[in-house]
């Protein structure tokens, strides 16, 4: 089994490397590769001022506390937000060859574990190289091996968690109920820990008053005492080899870490057996379903359980602009694909309002903080939103041939594709701006009267969609014109040359943005100047400026849509994507 | 209904299709057969407007695909071998969306009937990942039939279907032709071609090798008399 896994890893790596080298014959990959190498050189081996390698001496107890806290955060995030997709998900080829081979379930799992070690080791190596400035010393070897151990344990833990989630789902426990259950358990643990810590809290506070290092040392001492010490021990045992100052200490700390990793392995194997039972149950249910269909009966409702789609955001009218239909489709995709993001944002919003309300007399400061956060969120939605929401051509070009078979003008299609995410992000930005404005009405801001705030609200609300259109259009243009350079769909291509290509795409996008915004900024400045001459006061001059900016960007957007439409009409999916 | 004249598609120096001319009348089912890499898929993709021909003209219902692509595409439907569906649209929303793109004014009335006809009514609210392979195929067909196209193009229509599904698919093809649609069917399954198609077009290395009814093709080659369609196909393509 081990030899088979090693053979597969070795040959896959060799063939992947050969293929990557072969495609360097194409200039775009060669340029990307050169840029990627330069990027890694800059990241790892560039000459640095000061001490060589910032990670040479991680602090002792303080470092351990930070590492434990970091690890705990990762684990909590995974238990609360993780999906039932296991990190040990098998590829179709693995399923086909391994599941049908005369192997035990444990052997299959060993195979998968073994195959995942190389990527984990390379990740550890790269992380240490980056943080140590390319200087490789014996202490760095300790870091690499220690990090590898932590990654392996984390991977196994995530695997077990995924299997538990999958099993719960199979038994009808919904994701929301599961998350609530996890949060309840974790809240209980947090309360218990808080009660334990309560008596020692003054001691920790006093230590932190003397300095962060002393505070962390004090916290570290508490974490290793009593019940808390027992709870924290597995985490501590796992991170201590990573923090060892030399090879001898590393070796001495290894047995405890191996015990934690070994326990995870046993847990995983046992969970996998439990998962097998679930799989058998599922297979039996499917057999019953098939038998029911064959006999002409309808399967019972319990056998036809469907997770169902999130309710539609609106009914599409049978007649109307095709571009709006495409935009509607993309909005549905954003809505249904947002998963837990939206409920989490809503919960955070409600929590923030509740927090402000609880402040009582000090509510003014709270409102200021809330309004500022809302403005920051609106800005982030405009600047980063188009990179995050990708339900436009970046997703749909995977169905390039289907899109080309529709009776649509290319420009209509491109406009519709771009309008989807723009509409969603405009809604988010406007919502945040309006909420910030509404919140600001409750407080007195000297030098920024309510009317001026209204002017600022109008100006930003007018300009936001135009910014979004331009940024989203540039991203879509990159996907359409250089599909081989942009990741289509949810997956991400790997390789040094892809990093270089992404950098080139980013630089190109920034240049295009600059080109688009320059004339718009000139027009906006002229509009502001004219408003000043016409006697418009202060902040209100920004409104005609925003209108000028929006009209100019809108005009540029229309030209870009028309051009991209022609590009789409002349494109050949087979030539662009292969097949 | 479907008129193809001098269709040629080059990929660099590679000739995918060369000087292909044929026509399909309303009510006809033309079988497009040929060995792997013969140019069948390129031909179909050119007819649908996915691929732009290097030379030649294609007209659907009298509308030139190059000069009036929207008008031409509105009259045809393409059913690829793998159903292409949007991850986050339900079954009913797929139909509603397709109806809007093709300008089907009475889609509200047509959709329930189509869902019943293709046994998808109970899955109207389901997303594609909740559907079996056969149901996805049915949904793709429902989307293709919603606007009552005058020209239908099928690429390996029986892929992944169970026997009952295959039978229904064959009935759908024949029924649509009977209603006056011009149908092109590309498949490696010669028994399907023999059963469903009124004429056959054999293509090899991008060139037309033979076209006509099976009797006409065999009649033009005395050495093929009395042979099965499989033997005729192998002889014509030299494979």
**Low-pLDDT segments, ≥5 res of chain A:** 51-57, 275-284, 292-306
Counting helices, strands and paired strands, the structural category of chain B is: alpha/beta
- Portion of residues within helices of chain B: 25-40%
The tally of beta strands of chain A, per DSSP, is: 0
The level-1 CATH class of the largest domain in chain B: Alpha Beta
Question: What count of domains describes the coordinates of chain A?
Answer: 3
Q: State the end-to-end distance of chain B.
A: 32 Å
Instruction: Output the helix-strand order of chain A.
Output: HHHHHHHHHHHHHHHHHHHHHH
| CATH architecture assignment of the largest domain in chain B | 3-Layer(aba) Sandwich
Oligomer: heterodimer
For the sheet with most strands of chain B, the description reads: 6 strands, mixed
Question: How many strands, which pairing sense, and closed or not: the largest β-sheet of chain A?
Answer: none
By DSSP (H or I, 4+ residues per run), the number of helices of chain B equals 9
CATH level 4 superfamily of the largest domain in chain B: P-loop containing nucleotide triphosphate hydrolases
- Helix and strand succession of chain B? EEEHEEHEHHHEHEHEEHH
Number of domains of chain B: 2
Task: Summarize the structure in words.
The complex is a heterodimer of chains A (579) and B (239). Chain A has 3 domains: 45 residues; 227 residues, no CATH class; 256 residues, no CATH class. About 6% of the residues of chain A have low confidence. Chain A starts with a helix and ends with a helix. Chain A has 579 residues and is mainly α. In chain A, 76% of the residues lie in helices and 0% in strands. In chain B, helix 3 packs parallel to helix 5. Chain B is an alpha/beta fold. The mean pLDDT of chain B is 90. In chain B, the strands form 2 sheets. Chain B has a 6-stranded mixed beta sheet, sandwiched between helices. Chain B has a 4-stranded antiparallel beta sheet with strand order 2-1-4-5. The longest helix of chain B has 16 residues. In chain B, strand 9 and strand 10 form a beta hairpin. Chain B has 2 domains: 155 residues, P-loop containing nucleotide triphosphate hydrolases (Rossmann fold); 64 residues, no CATH class. Chains A and B meet through helix 12, helix 17 and helix 22 of A and helix 1, helix 2 and helix 3 of B.
